[in-house]
Amino acid sequence: MSLLITNIGELVTNDPAAGDGPLGLIRDAAVVVDGDRVAWVGAKQSAPDADERIDAGNAAVIPGFVDSHAHLVFAGDRAAEFAARMNGEPYTGGGIRTTVAATRAASDESLRTSAARLVGEARRQGTTTIEIKSGYGLSVEDEARSLRIARELTEETTFLGAHVVPAGYSPDAYVDLVCGPMLAAVTPYAKWVDVFCDRGAFDGDQARAILTAGVKAGLTPRVHANQLVAGPGVQVAVELGAASADHCTHLSDTDVSALAGSDTVATLLPGAEFSTRSPYPDARRLLAAGVTVALATDCNPGSSYTSSMSFCLALAVREMRMTPAEALWAATAGGARALRRDDVGVLRAGARADLAILDAPSYLHLAYRPGVPLITEVLHNGVPSNHPATAPDRTEG
Ligand SMILES: [Zn+2]
């Protein structure tokens, strides 16, 4: 079944061949979807016929957001910790253990329901691709079930057994567990392997050992790097060809040039700095050096409990001095790069039919109207979420 979305006032394609600049802007555009794929993109007067149609009413349309960093399989609530932090307590990452205890105690069904609710929440806000990490189980059994549940919700699943060292283990003994039985148990459900390489978590050698074991098991690395201090995370990520180094808040000049000379995306997570009242990463320094930048939510119950890519985009513009165009690109095409995908974060023939219609004439409103729910319709795999498409009015000829 084919679907025509027409009367698009401003279409962001992220296909530089389609139009203006890196966003590939087309005015007065249309998109034709066939099944779960984009079949055609262009000026509305040239659009081919389709079985059904949606009239966008001159609104802006963007590729669905690609949220390449989220922790959605967990139980419990850390609102009180957030309140204490807003009252002056520092963020140390130690609260992860609170969530681990709640997650281990939860049933499969409640973990599944809670993660699915967050995926739905993200989808309604325009996110059509989402990565989900484990990391609140920290036992062979609990990491495996976290990833089994994550895999029911997305193909972008990440093994983060190396989130923190759980109680009862020495760091070395835990690294051995992660590289051995835990990795073997999660491999059927995981695509990526990740390590929280930072102060209070895992050092460079431990991160290297875990990521290398993951690569041997067929997973591709990504790294929580340089969030709290300027440690070895970025260097390890680049050295091992990681798809992404995430956070990148505290970087040396060597880190920046290593990223610039690599295929590793710098994924910035401003929701974490917002929620921990910390200094934001220097996006301009990265962009000036030619680093590919992505934006993601880091949705998790401790340090960034938001599923809103629009919110992160607005923070990136206001607090990190990214232009609205850079921020939108980073939240869509940048996220796709961070997941090494070329079928999402872009609207061109052959790409996945994942897009969002805004209640706004331009994508600029995403940062200009922060906190406003501007996403009125989301197509995921070609299926509209809200209004069913209507058959075209045959009397139009
Ligand atoms: Zn994270």
Description:
The protein has 397 residues and is of the alpha/beta class. The protein starts with a strand and ends in a 13-residue tail after the last strand. α5 runs parallel beside α6 (204-216). 54% of the residues are buried. 35% of the residues lie in helices and 22% in strands. The longest helix is centred in the first third of the chain and has 17 residues, at 108-124. It has helices at 79-86, 96-105, 108-124, 140-153, 171-186, 204-216, 233-239, 253-260, 270-276, 283-288, 309-320, 324-338, 365-368; strands at residues 2-12, 25-34, 37-43, 52-55, 60-63, 65-67, 127-130, 132-133, 157-162, 192-197, 220-225, 244-247, 265-268, 293-295, 355-358, 375-380, 383-384. Mean pLDDT is 95; it is low at 393-397. Bound molecules: zinc ion. Zinc ion binds at residues 69, 71, 224, 298, 300.
Provide the descriptors you would attach to this structure in a database record:
disordered C terminus; alpha/beta; 22% strand; binds zinc ion; seven-stranded parallel β-sheet; 17 strands; 397 residues
Question: How would you concisely characterize the structure shown here?
Answer:
The protein has helices at residues 79-86, 96-105, 108-124, 140-153, 171-186, 204-216, 233-239, 253-260, 270-276, 283-288, 309-320, 324-338, 365-368; strands spanning 2-12, 25-34, 37-43, 52-55, 60-63, 65-67, 127-130, 132-133, 157-162, 192-197, 220-225, 244-247, 265-268, 293-295, 355-358, 375-380, 383-384. The chain is of the alpha/beta class. The model is unreliable at 393-397 (pLDDT under 50).
